Amino acid sequence: MKLKFSALLILFTGIILTSAFAQEKAVEEDLYSLSLEDLMNVPINSASKKDETLFDAPLSSYTITRAEMDRAGSTSIMEALRLAPGVIVREQANGVYDIHIRGFDNALRYTQQPFTKSNFTTLVMIDNRPVFNNNLGGTFWESLPIDINDVERIEIVRGPAAPLFGPNAVTGVINIITKRITQDGIYATADVQYGADTRIARGSFGKRLSDKVSVIVSGNYQDRDRFDDLYYSISTGQFVDPVTLFTGNSQNPQASADNRYPNSERALNKWGANGFITYKPQEKISFDLSLGLQEDEVQKVFLGIQGASNQLTYLSTNKSDSRYANLSAQIYGLHIRTSFVDGYDNINVGSNPSQYDYTTFDATVEYGITIGEKNTITPGISYQNVDFTDKPYVNPDQNIFGFLNANRSINTLAGFIRTDINPSEHWRIMAAIRADKFSTPDKTRVAYELATTYKLNANHLIRAAITRSNSGSFIGNTYLDITANTGIPTAPTAKQIGNKDLALLTVEMYEVGYRAQLSKNFQLDVDIFRQTVDNMSAIVLTEMQATQLPPPYPAVIPKTYQMQNVPTSLTQHGITLSLNYVPNDKIQVKPFVTVQKTKTYDLISAYTSSDFNPTYSDSDHENTPSWYGGFYMNFKASPKFTVNLSSYTYASHNQYDYADKTGTGTLGSIDGKFLLNAKVNYSPVKALSIFLNGRNILNSESREFYGADTIGGMYMVGASLSLN
User: Fold this and answer.
1) CA atoms within 13 A on the CB side of 220
2) Is residue 602's pLDDT more than 60?
3) 20 pLDDT band (50/70/90 cuts)?
4) Alpha-carbon distance 221 to 499, whole Å?
5) Cα–Cα distance for residue pair 302/476, rounded to 1 Å
6) Mean pLDDT score of the chain
7) Residue 424, class by beta-carbon neighbours within 10 Å (0-12 exposed, 13-18 middle, 19+ buried)?
């Protein structure tokens, strides 16, 4: 991987040399010199699929601009999400994040699968292309092919949004909009950052070849070391080295440690390359093609490490690589987008089963019909097909089995219609309905949305929304087929199987909001929301078998587990407050906070069938922080010198695990945290910046996630170039 880092350093140097010979052009976006109007009128498209300002958006939403990411010193797209209200961002290892919109994480508490602590209910997209993982759900953030150098802005919609974007947008949408060239001349950006634990290099180069064609190519690389060098041992309750972890669970602990943790000191290593081609033959016709590939290795809490008869630890090594193509066309009112992804995942390196290949194809066609000056009706259709196979990694003769042991696929055909109507100058109504027909389960699910805004005057807007969304159908949940050794001598094997008839997870939300332009440089945004989650599912023990075994082994042992729906539901209500204050052209301050309460109903005491008499209870769900927020503050001391402070903070909370069913263990007690970041930037010339970048500069050392690493401070030096 050092070769890739060197290659990007060469790219960075080449771009600087290019700038020396390029004609001077007006900088399209000076990230440190935006106007007051730019700072106050932030754009968004994802809230209604129509270009508008954040102030006018009908849903609870937010935009993180490229300028804010750069000023704040965000080292990745994932970290940049800490600049947005209503988003819970916890770091598992250096640069490895678990990200939720408003929570609902670890809702079932005591399931034996660590991945259930992760978010599988938020839809992440790049230019409206879903990058959702269709195996078990969620997003493998480390597998994004792009990085901050590719990003124009990040748009976030809080709350169910499946009627606009399709299944899996059940708690919200994170839509990453990439950069395109809009001016003549050379476009070039690059940055290199170096710290004791982190090395980052990124670069983009583009040119408008004619009035109709523009091209950008880019590359990105990150290499991050862990802050820790130990792993939590569930059996001893201590943090130990990898060899000690496997002692007693393997005939050769050193070989097992090397197999499971080929780079035990590494938190994240990833690289990506992308190309963006735009062709616009005339004003109302355009074509946009994106191409890219990526490769990554990461340690994170996902499946964990299994021993002979129990779970050993939570952090495991994951690897993946993928290639994608995305084509979007706008032909008058007709919009077509289609994409194809080919990839490989190894979601638990060194274990069996863990590997599979996949392809994803999706296409959306919609046509906007304009009625009058402001009213639109947009019907459309959508199709998605996902294919997974682990057959290349299955060898029964060597006792190597997969989690599918077959080629499996799920396809979804959908029809939708949305309307955006203005009954009067001040009143706006947006409605959408979508029906998704899944191949498995063989059922149709309906999602709907009704949102309205009313402008009391030019500076005050109130809004309300009612939305309902459902998740998609996941390959793993549907077609799981694992035969596992129980670890008990002479005992039969246990099976884990999927379920083709699962009811899909559903979220319903009621929301009201108020936005105010209190002065030309002061904005207020308030959201009040209530959400309900139903149709949750988990691996449930459905069959036991009586077996004659010597003590101390039980006489009845597990035989069959199946993915099933459980009666547990959640409700959540809360409020989000955010401000944008720009007192003058030197200072901008954006504080935000969310306060919420989540409650669990009919939580099952053990994931066994009703024949085994589990009990049910209601309780406060303490895994989601009761409050979280932060601030962004930028101070432009002079045209060449800028200081930025940003913060992210959350309340103490408790994460759960099957190994600690009483919830009294210290590992799940996540202390409240206040993270303070700082970036000091000096620009000797307009296009070049030299900076010091500190993350968690107060070195607030603590674990932010169950069984993961201690997260401490990080300090880097770097340089960046921006040329148009």
Assistant:
1) 25
2) yes
3) very low
4) 40
5) 14
6) 89
7) exposed
pLDDT band at 495 (very low <50, low <70, confident <90, very high): confident
Q: Which fold has domain 2-229+265-311+322-723?
A: Maltoporin; Chain A (2.40.170)
Residues 6+ apart with CB under 8 A from 600: 107, 109, 568, 569, 570, 618, 619, 620, 621
Query: Which residue in the block uniquely carries the two structure tokens 């290949």?
Result: 357
Beta carbons of 341 and 363 less than 8 angstroms apart: no
Is the pTM higher than 0.85? The answer reads yes
User: Smallest Cα–Cα separation from 44: which of 182, 166, 176, 164?
Assistant: 176
Identity of residue 87: V
Q: What's the rounded Cα separation, in Å, for the pair 562 and 545?
A: 15
Q: Write b or e for each residue in 211-224: b if 16 or more Cβ atoms lie within 10 A of its Cβ, otherwise e.
A: eeebbbbbbbbbbb
Cis amide bond preceding 145, omega within 30: no
* 718 vs 120 pLDDT, higher one: 718
Give the whole-angstrom CA distance, residue 706 versus residue 455: 45
Given a contact cutoff of 8 angstroms between Cβ atoms, the answer to whether 607 and 111 are in contact is yes
Q: Using a CB cutoff of 8 Å and minimum separation of 24, what contacts does 21-27 make?
A: 22/185, 22/186, 22/723, 23/185, 25/183, 25/184, 25/185, 25/186, 25/723, 25/724, 26/183, 26/724, 27/686, 27/687, 27/722, 27/723, 27/724
Other Cβ atoms within 10 Å of 483 Cβ, number: 13
Dist CA 650 CA 671 (whole Å): 9
Q: What is the pLDDT of residues 357-415, one digit of tens each?
A: 999 999 999 999 999 888 999 999 999 999 999 999 998 888 788 899 999 999 999 99
Residue 653's nearest CA partner among 666, 665, 664, 668 is: 668
Model pLDDT, residue 536: 92
Give the ranges where 462-583 is alpha helix by DSSP (H).
475-479
Round to whole Å and give the CA distance between 324 and 145: 9
Q: Which stretch of DSSP H or E encloses residue 254?
A: helix 253-260
Alpha-carbon span 567 to 604, nearest angstrom: 8
Alpha-carbon span 541 to 495, nearest angstrom: 10
- Rounded to whole angstroms, the Cα distance separating 78 from 704 reads 15
- Kindly state the DSSP code that residue 38 receives in the 8-state scheme: H
C-alpha 624 chain-centroid distance: 17
Q: Which CA distances in Å does 459 have to 253, 456, 579, 702?
A: 66, 8, 14, 43
Residue 24 pLDDT greater than 70, yes or no: no
For the chain, the domains span: 2-229+265-311+322-723
Give the pair of three-digit tokens for residue 656. 């759960």
What pLDDT score was predicted for residue 486? 59
For range 533-540, the mean pLDDT: 92
Which residues are within 8 A (CB) of 44 and not within 5 positions of it... i.e. 6 or more apart?
52, 53, 54, 57, 61, 62, 63, 155
| Chain segment 627-639, per-residue pLDDT in tens | 999 999 999 999 8
pLDDT at position 488 is: 63
* pLDDT computed for residue 27 by the predictor: 37
Task: Check residue 505 and report its DSSP letter.
Answer: P
**Torsions phi, psi for 149 (to 5 deg):** -65, -20
Q: Residue 181: count other Cβ atoms within 10 Å of its Cβ.
A: 20
Which residues 6+ apart lie within 8 Å of 256 measured at CB? Answer: 246, 249, 250, 350
The mean pLDDT value for 289-312 works out to: 87
The reported pLDDT for the residue numbered 61 is: 94
DSSP string, 512-528: EEEEEEEETTEEEEEEE
Cα distance between residue 645 and residue 156, in whole Å: 22
Written as one string, the DSSP assignment of 282-312 is ETTEEEEEEEEEEEEEEEEEEEEEE-SSSEE
d(CA 671, CA 649): 11
**DSSP H or E stretch at residue 18:** helix 2-21
